Amino acid sequence: MAFKSSLHEPHLGIFKSWTGPDCCHNWYGISCDPETNRVADINLRGESEDPIFQKAGRTGYMTGTISPAICGLKRLSSLTIADWKGISGEIPKCVASLPFLRILDLIGNRLTGQLPSDIGRLHRLTVLNVADNRITGRIPRSLTNLTGLMHLDLRNNRFYGSIPSDFGRLRMLSRALLSRNFLAGSIPDSVSRIYRLADLDLSLNRLSGGIPQSLGRMAVLATLNLDGNRITGGIPADLLSSSVTNLNLSRNALDGKLPEFGPRSYFTVLDLSRNRLTGGIPPSIAAASYIGHLDLSYNHLCGKIPAGSPFDHLEAASFEFNDCLCGSPLKRRCLGKQ
């Protein structure tokens, strides 16, 4: 009730059911451990298919703050206060002292301040999602102690500083989403040790340095998005014949020639636009198993665009604003030895 008193939800009446002495039955969003009768889960989502939202014909809006009183719920396993758009203030530092917490999902609010510096104490944590808030500061060094973490989402906040060099300690991680922040420095080589990592999104930051060669040797990495950074150097040779099927390296300062393709090259999206790539499009691209969307525009590429797949279904926009590319689908004809 102390937690409820710091929140205001004016439209849906989700707290109307929070009456009586027994919070384990029929309190909206609350569930308890059947053995201990202690509160185990708080699940309050502002965007849901729950009938209370359908009846109101709107998504949720809630203001107020997350009260430190929530830390009195020592058996709390899951804390979800998501997509309410108006909840502000800081994440209570004492959240890091909840020994059974597995899920912390606070996406889609207006939270400020920093992540608790000792968040690494939450050894059972599997999901940490604070995306779409206004959280600032550095990524806490203790975060890499969360060796059971499977899902990390820090997107669209105001984190700055570097990605911890020992990020690879998060061995169980399958998704690491850190886009739309102010992160700087290089991509840690240790990332490649996260053998379960399938989705790595570091786009729209201020990262610099090169792409670690080892990223192209990760077994299950399917999505790699580094769009909109300050990354330099060449494209690692292994990256175009890796497990990655959605590769976005657009809007960086990558240079050198395009690596060779091979039968393992399979891309639903391959976006290398707005870099400083030179040379020609390697003929080996015809050996790729599949390329759905390809964008090589705004580089310094030259020579004839190879004929056949995958070029027969691509538009001119995929090749425009290069130095001297020619041939279909561009209107520029190739002359002589081009």
UniProtKB/TrEMBL annotation:
Signal peptide: none annotated. The keyword DNA damage does not apply. The keyword Amino-acid biosynthesis does not apply. SUPFAM superfamilies: L domain-like. Gene3D superfamilies: Ribonuclease Inhibitor. It comes from the Eukaryota. It is found in: Membrane; Secreted, Cell wall. Its main location: membrane. One of its GO terms (cellular component) is membrane. Keywords: Cell wall, Leucine-rich repeat, Membrane, Repeat, Secreted, Signal. Residues 1-33 form the Leucine-rich repeat-containing N-terminal plant-type domain. PANTHER family: DNA DAMAGE-REPAIR/TOLERATION PROTEIN DRT100 (PTHR48060), LEUCINE-RICH REPEAT (LRR) FAMILY PROTEIN (PTHR48060:SF3). Belongs to the polygalacturonase-inhibiting protein family. This is Leucine-rich repeat-containing N-terminal plant-type domain-containing protein. The lineage of its organism: Eukaryota, Viridiplantae, Streptophyta, Embryophyta, Tracheophyta.
